[in-house]
From TrEMBL:
Protein name, as recorded: Cation-dependent mannose-6-phosphate receptor
Taxon lineage: Eukaryota, Metazoa, Ecdysozoa, Arthropoda, Hexapoda
Membrane found in the keyword field: yes
UniProt entry keywords in alphabetical sequence: Membrane, Signal, Transmembrane, Transmembrane helix
Top-rank taxon, per record: Eukaryota
């Protein structure tokens, strides 16, 4: 029996454990990040008590303001909020608005006086653009990122709080990568323990299969081939070589799955 495919199977089994991506979500959903089977972050309820045109707000001293309502788009009427946008339509739809003030100054030219006009720039983040990611350098912290193509509109770090009220805070509005924090109980990781998970069921099926295989194999070898003692164990040669195969599988896996990595003299002999 060729040993080569056997250690490949072991490598595949091990890679299922090793290559599971930590930090990212299992689901692609603007509201819910399933971190794993038991843990998730759910922003669905952030906008629950807000009217369609209501947002959580924050301002800094430099004329920047931010409006956020979780993962549900709302209506943002700039005129009603006394903002002066350079647009024929001052009404925006989104779940995040970052507003700045852009001053356009005219001067005296040939005896004509032009007034100073201030326009507000509005960056709109739509809920459909939300992606959950781990905060760089902090595996256990999560953030949501509004992305339009490759351009990042804003990053919002999620801060878990037991307090009933939720807050949005503008940390840095400068540059091309505005940073905010969202402090809320909806920013917490929720842990739930359902009955038996898919993983457990698969493990159980696996062990039952192993038992059936061993017991069935022993009986068949005992009665049909008249095997006795250790020879009753089915595929005894394979099980004897398993430790070596495991080693090859691990070397193969951790060397970036390069087949050249297993051409040690030992392995070569085995193959
Ligand atoms: C936006 O607000 C202004 C001022 O309150 C109001 O006149 C206008 O009708 C509003 N527009 C929409 C689409 O609600
Ligand atoms: C206002 O919008 C018009 C048309 O989009 C543009 O030509 C103009 O430069 C804008 N002004 C400012 C101050 O952004
Ligand atoms: C005043 O405005 C004119 C026309 O826009 C421009 O050419 C000139 O450089 C400005 N002067 C100053 C001092 O800003
Ligand atoms: C100012 O007026 C002079 C003379 O009338 C003219 O030649 C010049 O082009 C004007 N400059 C501007 C910026 O309008
Ligand atoms: C410029 O603005 C001032 C104050 O807002 C106002 O009193 C004045 O009438 C304006 N002038 C022009 C030419 O728009
Ligand atoms: C203000 O917002 C406008 C529109 O989003 C943007 O083009 C401009 O660069 C912003 N200005 C500053 C100082 O951030």
């Amino acid at each position: 029996m060729a040993k080569f495919p056997n250690f490949l199977i072991i490598a595949v089994l091990l890679s299922a454990v090793k290559c599971t991506d930590v930090g990212a979500c299992l689901s692609e959903n603007p509201c819910v990040c399933d971190i794993d089977e038991y843990n998730k972050i759910d922003l669905t309820q952030v906008a629950q008590q807000l009217k369609d045109d209501e947002f959580l707000e924050d301002f800094d001293g430099a004329g920047n303001s931010v409006y956020f309502r979780g993962c549900k788009d709302g209506t943002f009427n700039a005129t009603a909020r006394k903002l002066n946008v350079n647009s024929t339509n001052p009404v925006f739809s989104g779940s995040l608005m970052i507003v700045n003030t852009t001053y356009v100054t005219f001067n005296y030219t040939n005896g004509t006086f032009y007034n100073t006009t201030a326009f507000n720039g509005v960056q709109v983040g739509k809920s459909a653009q939300i992606k959950f990611t781990a905060v760089e350098g902090q595996k256990s912290s999560h953030q949501i990122v509004y992305k339009s193509g490759e351009k990042v509109i804003a990053r919002i770090e999620l801060l878990c709080s037991a307090y009933d009220k939720s807050f949005i805070k503008l940390i840095n509005a400068e540059g091309t990568d505005p940073t905010l924090t969202f402090t809320s109980r909806y920013a917490c990781v929720i842990t739930h323990h359902p009955g038996m998970s898919t993983g457990s069921v698969l493990l159980l099926i696996f062990f039952i299969s192993v038992v059936v295989y061993l017991v069935g194999g022993c009986l068949i070898l005992y009665f049909i081939r008249g095997a006795r003692g250790l020879e009753m164990i089915p595929n005894i040669d394979f099980w004897r070589s398993l430790p070596g195969l495991m080693k090859d599988g691990i070397i193969f896996l951790f060397s970036g799955c390069s087949p050249t990595s297993i051409t040690t003299p030992e392995t070569y002999d085995r193959i």
